[in-house]
User: What shape does this take?
Amino acid sequence: MSETVENVPATATGPVRRSRDVPMLVDRARAGDPRAVARLITLVESGDEVLPQVAAALAPYAGHAQVVGLTGSPGVGKSTTTNELVRALRARGHRVGVLAIDPSSPFTGGAILGDRVRMQDHATDPGVYIRSMSSRGHLGGLSAATPQAVRVLEGAGCDVVLVETVGVGQAEVEVASLADTTLVLLAPGMGDAIQAVKAGILEIADVFVVNKADRDGADATVRDIQGMIALGERGPGEWRPQVVRSIAARGEGIDDIAAAIDKHRDWLERHGELRRRREARAAAEVEAIALGVLRDRIGSLRDGTELSTLAAKVAEGAIDPYAAAGELLTQLGS
Ligand SMILES: Nc1nc2c(ncn2[C@@H]2O[C@H](COP(=O)(O)OP(=O)(O)OP(=O)(O)O)[C@@H](O)[C@H]2O)c(=O)[nH]1
Ligand SMILES: [Mg+2]
Assistant: This one.
């Protein structure tokens, strides 16, 4: 269970608390009960055995929400920007869900506690669900749990879901595969522009946000990024990443970020790319679930005699490891 949940209580009370009554929880979540939303996300996060039921109950509501990912180095201003984007989206009348994902640590660090403060503005707004998640305990990790949590928020009627992930290792790539639009945040003077290329971020960013533009070096960072974008090869009609600057701490530049997201969304729709991305996302989701099941089954084989018998044969050279793996897979299928 997540340690911090901003305006969605992790420990729901009343009939919802500890409930595994999926139809009841989904009905309540549909009606906008934040405790039911919280409970469903907890079930998702912990990889509960009712997960297939949750997914089945939520399937009809898929595809309603626009999913926007925000990633970038620690402290670059993701939560501050998210908080301001929520404000802008609320002003448009949207219901908004926020998932703050901490992929790096199973424990809640300062970052998520910080989020609690920075997103406090919306704590009492019934049109906003804010939830922190860690991937702890989830078999498929972040890649399996996050799309399910997005589905819960979609089911709860969110028009937009913002997913914040610290840009470490694989995590940002996973966010990109989840989101319709991915924002990569950078700050001046962090050597981020160069890091961005190294980490292959250029490929995943639909919009670059140079935040902390009140600091020295913002112009240089914008120039660096634009230079790198110019170098990229792009076919006709292909999306050219936008570069926007902001001072999230003062709420400046947020309209520009929102406009860039809108522009990208239009492009996605006009080019059939929205559908393509969502199908790719669904493929990744199905694959993650299937791999999770397989891993489970292999795990249970490991405790049994099948794997140890095969392992002994491989160790003594009676069969090769590929043949053994083939036999193992045959046993899994039966
Ligand atoms: N100078 C300046 N500071 C900012 C700006 N935006 C955010 N900050 C500050 O930067 C610090 C980190 O902001 P967060 O929004 O928590 O950054 P984050 O990327 O969510 O951080 P993690 O979740 O820990 O990775 C806070 O002290 C913010 O007040 C900005 O535009 N200018
Ligand atoms: Mg944050």
